[in-house]
Amino acid sequence: MIKSATNQSQGMLLFRLTPLQTFAIGTLKVKEIVPYTRLTAIPHSHPTVLGAATLRGDTLPVIDMAKAVGYPPLSKEELKDCYIIITDCRRMLVGFLVRGIDKITECDWHKIDAPPSSLGKNVFVTGVMNVEEKQVQLLDVELLLSKVYPDKPDSLHPVLTDIQREILRPLKILLVDDSAVARRQLSQALDSISIPYFIATNGRDALTMLEHAADAGEPFDILVSDIEMPGLDGYELAFEVQNSDKLNHAYIILHTSLSSEISVSQAHQVGAHEALTKFEANELIHAMLRGAEKISSLETES
């Protein structure tokens, strides 16, 4: 496993939405944690948006996270004891009001398990782990935000010419993301322009698919992967691909919900050709077109 500076250690912020269950999000998404502050009403906002807070010059919406994921909403009496987790995700600053903050802890992302079927259809949970003999559920913040702030239709459907479409159509494309909402967005973008693709839900499966395809003489041309994934994350996947003679044919596009120049810089350090903050369909498609151009030029040289 990579032990370089690019493999930035990401901890877990543990917090409570109910008295009994502990939840978590990765610390790279968290900008700040502040005590509850007075909120200003936002007319015609989503039912889970409690209002807007102004913090350090930024005005941001504050969401009752418990209500947003299906738990009892916060009462007015509880508010004074609550905390706001300020996140930078999906290109927007958002505050999540939670019942309590437990702590920030180190995390071995490779030991996060898929959510058990006993959780039912709680689609907001992407993984579970044990911290001090207590089960912690990892929340899918991207999915939560997509319910509160749905993507505009034009952000999901790319626009390209017939010539550009035919450039992409012959390429073998692999999409990798552990988030169901992100996979749906990626799929819709390519489905809308009739571009075929393959999907993996985690980095380990993606690496296996890449290796099998290369062994069969049909290697993948373009790899589009999320950065933040339990198990083998996007940085590690890119590193493995670039350091394998049989896999490094692939043009690597990493994407992240973190609006951070640091994430982009790290992506380039591990060998990714591009890094995007997700999700804007036209940006993704044009990154793929740049990949197609590079692949074509390498084939011409050889």
UniProtKB/TrEMBL annotation:
GO terms for biological process: chemotaxis; phosphorelay signal transduction system. The keyword 4Fe-4S does not apply. InterPro entries: Chemotax_regulator_CheV, CheW-like_dom_sf, CheW-lke_dom, CheY-like_superfamily, Sig_transdc_resp-reg_receiver. SUPFAM superfamilies: CheW-like, CheY-like. Residues 9-150 form the CheW-like domain. Residues 172-293 form the Response regulatory domain. Transmembrane segments: none annotated. The keyword Lyase does not apply. The modification 4-aspartylphosphate is found at residue 226. Keywords: Phosphoprotein. This is Chemotaxis protein CheV. It comes from Photobacterium marinum.
